[in-house]
Amino acid sequence: MITTSFFVGNYMADLPLSILRLKLFNWHKWAGISILALSALRLLWRLTHRPPPDLPGPAWQQRVAHLVHGLLYLLFFAVPLVGWAYSSASGFPVVVFGVLPLPDFVPVSRQLAAALKPLHGILAWTLAVLVLLHSVAALKHHFIDRDRLLERMLPGRG
């Protein structure tokens, strides 16, 4: 969802005003709210279930892994929340799936919208880079290190 939403967001941003652009903006908002809700559920799961122990390896890799995981969780929340705030500040409400209007949590303000728009993009690009690096690292563990890291993500494994 995150990857698709990222690519849709980049594509729609440069479209001229049209029905397609409006549809994509709505889809992007729905995806963002869904990502936000799923991230909250994922965080609750992580807080109530211990992660598997760290794999053997250099301490610096474990520190980087923990840092990246923390940044990923932070961005899972920050990107959609800043997007929601940007939409609210722009005067365009978020109506999930066209039926559930969400409250605006910032006032309509051109200045605020102008500040939030690039912030949303910067955070989204940061998330995209971290997701890519995280994926490459996981594949490196699987195909080069052959340390069964990916298998630990399966239910009942660890």
Describe this structure in words.
- The protein is mostly helical and 158 residues long.
- The protein has one domain (2-153).
- It has 4 helices and 2 strands.
- Strands 1-2 form a two-stranded antiparallel ribbon.
- A hairpin with a 3-residue loop joins strand 1 and strand 2 (100-101).
- Helix 1 packs antiparallel against helix 2.
- The longest helix is centred in the last third of the chain and has 36 residues, at 110-145.
- The mean pLDDT is 93.
Give a brief description.
With 158 residues, the chain is mainly alpha-helical. 70% of the residues lie in helices and 3% in strands. The protein is elongated, with a radius of gyration of 18 Å.
Radius of gyration: 18 Å
Order of helices and strands: HHHEEH
Strand order in the sheet with the most strands: 1-2
* Low-pLDDT regions: none
> How far apart lie the N and C ends?
25 Å
Question: Oligomeric form of this entry?
Answer: single chain
Shape: elongated
Structural class, from helix and strand content? mainly alpha
Please tell me the total number of domains.
1
Major sheet, described briefly?
Answer: 2 strands, antiparallel
**Fraction in beta strands:** under 5%
Mean pLDDT: 93
Helical content class: 55-70%
What's the helix count?
4
Strand segment count: 2
